[in-house]
Amino acid sequence: MQPAADRRYVLTLSCPDRTGIVARISGFLADAGAWIVEAAYHAEPEENWFFTRQVVRADSVPFDADELRARFAEVAAEFGPETSWQVTDTAVLKRAVLLVTKEPHCLHDLLGRVAAGELPVQLEAVIGNHEGLADIVRAHGVEFHHVPFPGPDAPDRAAAKAAAFDEVRKLVDVHDPDAIVLARFMQILPPELCTAWAGRAINIHHSFLPSFAGARPYHQAHARGVKLIGASCHYVTADLDAGPIIEQDVIRVDHGDTVADMVRRGRDIERLVLSRGLRWHLEDRVLVQGNKTVVFH
Amino acid sequence: MQPAADRRYVLTLSCPDRTGIVARISGFLADAGAWIVEAAYHAEPEENWFFTRQVVRADSVPFDADELRARFAEVAAEFGPETSWQVTDTAVLKRAVLLVTKEPHCLHDLLGRVAAGELPVQLEAVIGNHEGLADIVRAHGVEFHHVPFPGPDAPDRAAAKAAAFDEVRKLVDVHDPDAIVLARFMQILPPELCTAWAGRAINIHHSFLPSFAGARPYHQAHARGVKLIGASCHYVTADLDAGPIIEQDVIRVDHGDTVADMVRRGRDIERLVLSRGLRWHLEDRVLVQGNKTVVFH
Amino acid sequence: MQPAADRRYVLTLSCPDRTGIVARISGFLADAGAWIVEAAYHAEPEENWFFTRQVVRADSVPFDADELRARFAEVAAEFGPETSWQVTDTAVLKRAVLLVTKEPHCLHDLLGRVAAGELPVQLEAVIGNHEGLADIVRAHGVEFHHVPFPGPDAPDRAAAKAAAFDEVRKLVDVHDPDAIVLARFMQILPPELCTAWAGRAINIHHSFLPSFAGARPYHQAHARGVKLIGASCHYVTADLDAGPIIEQDVIRVDHGDTVADMVRRGRDIERLVLSRGLRWHLEDRVLVQGNKTVVFH
Amino acid sequence: MQPAADRRYVLTLSCPDRTGIVARISGFLADAGAWIVEAAYHAEPEENWFFTRQVVRADSVPFDADELRARFAEVAAEFGPETSWQVTDTAVLKRAVLLVTKEPHCLHDLLGRVAAGELPVQLEAVIGNHEGLADIVRAHGVEFHHVPFPGPDAPDRAAAKAAAFDEVRKLVDVHDPDAIVLARFMQILPPELCTAWAGRAINIHHSFLPSFAGARPYHQAHARGVKLIGASCHYVTADLDAGPIIEQDVIRVDHGDTVADMVRRGRDIERLVLSRGLRWHLEDRVLVQGNKTVVFH
Questions:
Q1: Residue B112 is nearest to which of D38, D112, D272, comparing CB atoms?
Q2: Share of chain A above pLDDT 90, in %
Q3: What is the topology classification, in CATH, of domain B94-286?
Q4: Could you tell me which residue ranges the ACT domain spans (chains A, B, C, D) (predicted)?
Q5: CATH T-level topology, domain A4-89
Q6: A:C CB pairs within 8 Å
Q7: What share of chain D in percent tops pLDDT 70?
Q8: In Å, how far is C29's CA from the nearest CA of chain D?
Q9: CATH code of the domain occupying D94-295
């Protein structure tokens, strides 16, 4: 349980930039008696767009989150119809569903972080197209669903795959999750799922994008002889490995590293990058602008 | 010359925290028509102290910097007598003086950066206790002053050293510099200079402080067998290598690195850390709180 | 099961340096038909000491590991009585025992890595002075033993603690482990255990040693205002947090990070540093020289 | 002047791999009485190729470098006709020529490092297609040659450019340099120069290759919204920005960084990456294999 003193309301907003937005928002919050504990702003000069994230102590505001939303809606309306905003309440845990295949390292890492209380999330379910990871998921007290996917030589593969994705979608959507995490899922989401889960589906790609998009990035990296390998956490869009990047990082490799070494060593960076990106998403630190992200951390 | 559109007024302020400060400041700026291009806040819960840095386009304000200061003084007065604030104008270049001895790498790096337009500073003078670096300083069009310091076996060493520091002080103070940079100066400033130059004297120490303060830090690091070596840029105080840290960084070493290798490789990190710390100081990004810094970058 | 083609013999040796050691060893290996896949050397000029690690394909040698040891013993004898060496066989898994308390993150990470096949080790048992982590350990199919330790106000605390350590020692020694990992165990080993487990007991300390040894390193780091926090993996000696360092790393923090943030963020670096140090230890990459390590990676 | 005790002979060799090469080479060196101070090996399993770099104290060998070469030639001949090897003498300084345009930061950095004795090189000349950097080069006591290149709208541009490159080639080749450094030269070398200078022409590209090859990489990086920017030091080949990579590194950027910020901040990483790559080249640490490098550091 979150102590009452740690409960926060998190306001995020983006809108066309103009003079006075900060003053209007901070004036509104001051009038409400809100005690701001974090405040970040970004003005994008090229697009002339404004972004902010403000965190206030819930116990400093003399009404609840719904009332705060209702009152702030009037302020937001002043910034024009393109304005996008939300107020979240840290007392309401975000919900996540994970999609996995056989690769266990990102799953183990996220399960461990949730068990250790490091991620502010309710893990609703894990869906795998293989059964190998079911036991460890259930040992953590989380639902596991096995949805087999057709192999490369399956008859009527397209239809079988579509049916499998339909089942995945049903199993996911029942939880109305705030995050659908492709924790090395290795299946390309169909465009309609990319649309349905826009801004909520998060992938970890095992390269420093845009280098080595697509299949077997460590093989590509090895062939090119790069001196660093990386991982990228990004929102899933219909354009493969080309969605808005949330977080990236790299580690050094050298001529002695085989592809197998890169695969093993890359896991360290995949784990870190995915968990950081997911944390920031769950904390409402990530605002999407076109194909880029503003990350207030 | 800075194009008019790039001219900025930079407001920094720190004061006891309370509700409504952001609203008051942003309201003031909005009333003045100021177009905010950067805004950062920090609330320190333990000390209950508030810090902010705001950058506005000069051409958005219908009066000059002095008038902005005069008007803002009334706002600042509302935040209590402990409030500290300033408004600087990027059209007025900061002034710096460098103190050096024989070690050339930080000096070369800073001269190169100034020549390349990377640091917003007017380099007023370089003062060295050896003459070896005079030529390259003058080739960059900068004054060089040689102030010899007594060697370890000099007769009446304390008095000679005090006299040398008196001369250094005169040569520095004539420029009323915003930054006095000890670019591997290797002489310990007397307490009265630490006081006179408080918040302006910046040192680069070749270790990751607080490890290996004092003499021969690379020897200490080698003897301990650490796997990373570092450098720390900090404000000079009377307490040796213990002033507020502005910036630190490290690089990896291994068992194959001798002390000489560490000295050579450490230079890369000394250059970077000093130039970053100095840049942030010159851009009014560093606010001191007790023995710590808030760095808005 | 390790494929036969991946089986390796790993030879490590250290001895006083002199001309011809490399030739003698490589001549021996060539005569045996051994196919070298990795070879690393280090000569320490100050101590005049020589270190090497050689990895050969097991299937290139026409006899077994014991015979290789018997034959190499004659070579090693030529390098003098101070010579230290061993030949290990990657087909014989190393054994490890973990010591834990309540902090779960390093345990979760190591369990996940073992389950994912990332660490070449047989995890024999986990011993905890609290029971909270028992279930997840057992879910991974690993023994868990609960050995309660006396609290700070327990009567006859010294005796109770000694008794607890006696029990820990028995539970550990029955496995004759190659590694005893203090995965945030938070109890100071008594000197006799440091001696008994010398070169096998591995600790993770949550600071960039030698800074902030001892208790509450993140509090110390926060108070000093450092800009990076770190973790250090080291062999345990009777001198607290002062044993030979195997691996260290750091991450950036800033003025906005509270102690609680540092604790949370530091976990990422503790996990990485411990797992890297442990891996290198298990792969016979770490040779100890006095209070320092040679790490061939 | 290098002290006699610091003089080294550096042997590098690559050849098809087979058992016994290490034994043969180390046996040869032992017979010669050579005291090995560094030894590194790499066996590339895919290509079945062997690489080594051995450093011996010159004063431990009872004959000179030419005699060492003559004797070693017989050993190398045993490894087959594809064997490539050399023996260099650190008492003979390598020679370098730099090519520059207007961007000063890499030039300043290299001049500073040479002046500080950080790079083992004789800087023979700097050739620029603009005159702006002439003064600082000459202040460092180095020849500067101005070779104007035709602008984008110059009549008969191709011929003028070819003539300019002819002049550059003459000015370079007179020094028979070991390194031709394109220190942000920004002109694409014609194929015949790539061939003539193969393995000696070193470029710094301001991106983490293979991402953002070609023109305006920081603009490309900004448009894609990456969270790290990088630089790559590579040998120049006829295939633009696709030659063997010697070194790469990255730094973190965020949504607040404009293209201009990236350009400025990227300079830090360009300087470091170029100076590291050049140092390794000068120290004979870089062996090229196809389009990749083995770097023994």
A1: D112
A2: 92
A3: Rossmann fold (3.40.50)
A4: 10-86
A5: Alpha-Beta Plaits (3.30.70)
A6: 55
A7: 99
A8: 8
A9: 3.40.50.170
